[in-house]
Amino acid sequence: MKAVLFDAYGTLASITDPRRPYRQVINEARRRGTELPGDVASHVMASPLTLSELASQLHVPTEALHHAERDLETEVASITLYPETLATLEALQARGLKLGVCSNLAAPYAAPLLKVLPPLDAYLWSFEVGAIKPQPQIFEAACQALGCSPVEVLMVGDSLQADVDGARAAGLHAAWLTREGDHGDLQSLDELLQ
């Protein structure tokens, strides 16, 4: 193994006060009878849409948008790393491994995460790549950014389908992190150090 990729939320960090502002905007559009694109959640994560741009596309009124924007501010202010994240990343870097983040997320969630993480070798955000996990394009882009072949990379994440099955289908190794329960490969990031 030459590199380790991590999912962001649910793996490295958590949102301790979830408000789901994008879902609020989508639900408001549904309530108003707006016709939504096929998989609107995937659309949001595969493009650099701000909350206000999404609300505009879905014809959501200003008052509902302002409420969702306040909730977005609350949500990103509550982002925190899991207790073992920094020490695990530093130990893996000390072993000479390249590290990266590969995550499905809406654009406003990347910058707050970058503020709390140490510098890593690569950051692959679905909204920049234009593909979401489990699509192979995002894993291919991650391997290219790390300068590694897929067989040299381990993907660690909390979603069996997106992080594990998607990574394996793209030729990477994968470990399923389940912080609650013992049905995954890992229950904590520091188990990577054993």
How is this structure best described in words?
With 194 residues, the chain is an alpha/beta fold. The chain folds into two domains: 3-14 and 81-193, 3-Layer(aba) Sandwich (Rossmann fold); 21-77, no CATH class. It has nine helices and seven strands. The strands form two sheets. Strands 5-4-1-6-7 form a five-stranded parallel beta sheet, with helices on both faces. Helix 6 (110-116) links the parallel strand 4 (98-103) and strand 5 (122-125). Helix 1 packs antiparallel against helix 4. It starts with a strand and ends in an 18-residue tail after the last strand. The model has no long low-confidence stretch (mean pLDDT 96). It is an enzyme of class 3 (hydrolase). GO terms for molecular function: hydrolase activity. Keywords: Hydrolase.
Q: Could you give the count of β-strands? A: 7
Shape category: globular
Assign a percent range to the helix content: 40-55%
Q: Superfamily at the CATH H level of the largest domain?
A: HAD superfamily/HAD-like
| pLDDT < 50 stretches | none
Task: Look at the structure and give the CATH class of the largest domain.
Answer: Alpha Beta
Mean pLDDT: 96
**Domain count:** 2
- Largest sheet properties: 5 strands, parallel
